[in-house]
Every structure is written in structure tokens, then in C-alpha cells.
Amino acid sequence: MAYDQALAGRIRQLLAGTPDLIEKKMFGGVGFLLRGNMACGVNQDKLIVRVGPERYAEALAHPQAAPFDMTGRAMKGWVFVNPEGIKSDDALRAWVQQGVEFALTLPPK
């Protein structure tokens, strides 16, 4: 299944003008990287967010979030957010901001 182009477009709008932003095809979808580190992305119709290990449990407590698992082994610090959890622009912005905040704590690649 192709990834949700409309969702990717919404993320592009949110991140427009962000320094050192790169959009890259990955995970069968698209990823948004800051200084070489992935902040968020789209896989099928789900948002991928890299929240980091410290905010992982908090993120998973959200009813629309699930572990990011594409191989049978979940990646700690990364979550999928179902479409219901990102319907509103405010909800999408909050999730994307978490990914941006974490990505900016990492050293540039």
C-alpha cells in the first residue's frame, strides 16, 4: 500500500521553513529528518513519531498510539499513531513536535 500523501503534505506544511529538514523515502513511506535524524514519517496511513526512550511509555499511553514495529520487533522510542489520533491539525502538530524535539537532542549525522 502506498503511503498517505495527504498526511505527508500536512506534515510538510507543519515543518515548512525548518532548518536542516530532509524528506526521504523510507519504511515504504516517507521520513522527515532533522540534521540527519528522523523526527517523524508516514507509513501507509499511520504517522511514525520518534519520541525517544524517556517519553515512550507516555506516548504509548495514548489510545491511538502503538509500538512502531515493522519487523516483529518493536523499536523502543518510536510509535505509530493511527489516523484517528491525528485527525485534527492540533493533534498532528503535537505529535510532530514531539518528534522534532527529540530529533534535535541528537547529534547531527
Give the arrangement of secondary structure elements.
Layout: H1 5-15, E1 21-26, E2 29-34, E3 37-43, E4 46-50, H2 56-60, E5 65-67, E6 78-81, H3 89-103
Antiparallel strand pairs: 1-2, 2-3, 3-4, 4-6, 5-6
Briefly characterize the structure.
This protein has 109 residues and is of the alpha+beta class. It is built from 3 helices and 6 strands.
Could you name the key traits of this structure?
single chain, 109 residues, alpha+beta, Aspartate Aminotransferase, domain 1, six-stranded antiparallel β-sheet, 6 strands, globular
Low-confidence stretches: none
Globally, the shape reads globular
How are helices and strands ordered from N to C? HEEEEHEEH
**Computed structural class:** alpha+beta
Rg for CA atoms: 13 Å
The oligomeric status of these chains comes to single chain
Strand content is 25-35%
CATH architecture: Alpha-Beta Complex
**How is the CATH topology named?**
Aspartate Aminotransferase, domain 1
How many helices? 3
The whole-number mean of residue pLDDT values reads 96
Percentage of residues in helical conformation: 25-40%
Tell how many strands the DSSP assignment holds: 6
- Main pleated-sheet profile: 6 strands, antiparallel
Distance between the termini: 30 Å
Number of domains: 1
CATH class value: Alpha Beta
How are strands sequenced across the largest beta sheet? 1-2-3-4-6-5
